[in-house]
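Render this sequence as a predicted structure.
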Amino acid sequence: MSKKHKRQKQRRQFPWMLLALGGVLVAAALILFTRQGGGMPSITVDQQRIDYGDVKFDTPKTFAVKVTNMGDGILRFKEEPYIEVVEGC
């Protein structure tokens, strides 16, 4: 075999090996990303109800609520969380 024939043969094989390596890397990345958030999130709040009793109008009151993800997945909110003030309950 001449040197010219060997070079042509090597050039044909190189892109296939590179393509196979790229495919393996893409498959590995997909596996890693799908495993990260594979579980189910579960939200818990330490207080379901906060009762201050009778409060005069314009009297500021503060409170703290602890929100925890007890599940094994990533907890994501589709909208900004809000608090609803219910009067007379």
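Summary. The chain has a mean pLDDT of 77. The radius of gyration is 30 Å.
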